[in-house]
Amino acid sequence: MLFNSIVYWLFLPAVWVSYFMLPVRFRWIWLLLASYFFYGFWKLEFAGLMLLTSAIDWYCGKYIESTPRIGWKRFWLWFSIGSNVLMLFMFKYLDFSMGSSPVARWMADHNATAWIIELGKYTIPAGISFYTFQSISYVVDVFRGQEKAEQSLPKFMLYVSFFPQLVAGPIERFGKLHAQLFRPYLPCWQDLRNAARLLMYGLFLKVAVADNLASVVDTYYAGSTSAIANSPVYSCFDAWVASFFFAFQVYTDFFGYSLLAQGSALLFGIHLMDNFNKPFLAKSIPEFWHRWHISLSTWFRDYVFIPVGGNKRGPLVLSAAVLLVFFASGLWHGASATMIAFGLSQGILYLFDRFVFKRLEWIGKSQSETTRWSALRLKIWDGFKQCKTGFFFMLTLIYFRSSSMHQAAKIWNQLWFGGSENIGLTAPYSAAIEVQESSAELTIGMQIPIFLCIFLLLDLCVMKERADVWMGKFALPLRWIMYCMMAISIWIWGGAINHPFVYFQF
């Protein structure tokens, strides 16, 4: 069930009204049923997979807490981690890891993976990377003694499956989310008002900004795979436009989802963490990842980076830990060489900023200059660092969006050398068929730069706080003008373009 679908906007108020009509002690049960309906609405079998993950980790958490022997605690910890990794591997990484090896050919010839293919129908269970990470964090926290094991399986199932953040996060920790799910709560006007603002602004970012940008990006990346004759060839300028647009498409798409998740949860009195904090104002790649997809970054910090050594064992261990984290992050985003390249390129840029670029800080500072000139110079230097960080992140997203390394190489060729190859064709396909190419230009509607400029102005320059808090500070007439403008934009563009959320595939 997509947040930008009519079905969801019928589902959400129905669940909300029914929730508060029930006695307090039964509300969490209704929320659990609604969450499993939300997930099973897409494919019922995958709800069973999530139930299996929850049951295994619940049992492991109980055994870890109850057994006094450290050896058995470690056994159940690794049993939980191993079972989660195994499920991820089967549904997300099996085909990629096998490749065209003899084992893969034997399994295909003997129909050994038919049950996985039949269950998945060539798709990955939506949100499997999110809810498995959330479930793993619970077991690790119980092992560390930071959390008490949940004694009720259905209550733990609700922690794993809570529908606003189930499919694309944020990845919440057990202590914070569990405490809110089961406390008595009465709706208050402030929460309802803030939730409505988050839902409105999140849907505006998704429908008006991200989906319009996606229409241009998809056209560029698709090339002419659907029409072999007269294949369009886009210019170097188009390549830069598509790359720039995709950076803000994926940002507004995921940021919009996060606001929708926060708004949906706030209707039930549950506060989810902020997943973004103006990442394109970051002055370095390390700072960028403290502002972008915060729940995933902190998860890797707490459960991978620090346990393998972190920054307390010298630069070599630090470098190895950073590359490991970003390699794992790339794999988390997808089972492909392009995602691994995306992750490793981010790791290399992280280390470059950490050990090389940081030594250039003296350029922005000088003790011998007047205070006014020094402040101006510092602002210019900060602006350069922000542009540098955003520019390099934009370039690495070419790997994130490309369907193959061959396509990514062609786009790099177009960006820097003005190559005229059709980027939609893979190497074997284009070699086998003679393609008639013709020059083409990307069609960019007037609404696209308007919506993008509005968002950039708000996000980078105007909004100093979260959208719901910022909008609440204006006078009533001005607030309603903003609401009406967003509602009109959603109404006009909501039915014209309807792209699934980018992070639903993870």
Topology:
Blueprint: H1 6-21, H2 24-40, H3 44-66, H4 70-98, H5 102-109, H6 114-120, H7 128-144, H8 153-161, H9 174-181, H10 189-222, E1 231-233, H11 236-266, H12 285-291, H13 294-305, H14 315-333, H15 337-355, H16 371-401, H17 405-417, H18 427-432, E2 437-439, H19 447-462, H20 467-471, H21 476-494
Parallel strand pairs: 1-2
Attribute tags:
506 residues; mainly alpha; 2 domains; two-stranded parallel ribbon; 1% strand; 21 helices; 2 strands
What is the gist of this entry?
The chain is mainly alpha-helical and 506 residues long. It is 68% helix and 1% strand.
Task: Write up this protein.
- Helix 10 runs antiparallel to helix 11 (236-266).
- This protein is 68% helix and 1% strand.
- It is globular and about 60 Å long.
- It has 21 helices and 2 strands.
- The protein has 506 residues and is an all-alpha fold.
- It has a two-stranded parallel sheet.
- The chain folds into 2 domains: 6-186, no CATH class; 188-276 and 419-506, no CATH class.
Q: What is the number of helical segments per DSSP (H or I, 4+ residues)?
A: 21
Shape: globular
Indicate the percent of residues in helices.
Answer: 55-70%
Give the DSSP E fraction (strand runs of 2 or more residues): under 5%
The ordered H/E elements are HHHHHHHHHHEHHHHHHHHEHHH
Give the termini distance in whole angstroms: 15 Å
Low-confidence spans: 117-122, 224-229, 425-436
Q: What is the SS-derived class?
A: mainly alpha
Number of domains: 2
Q: How are strands sequenced across the largest beta sheet?
A: 1-2
Please describe the biggest sheet, giving its number of strands, its sense, and whether it closes into a barrel: 2 strands, parallel
**Would you report the number of β strands?**
2
Q: Which whole number gives the mean pLDDT?
A: 83
Radius of gyration of CA atoms, rounded to a whole number: 24 Å
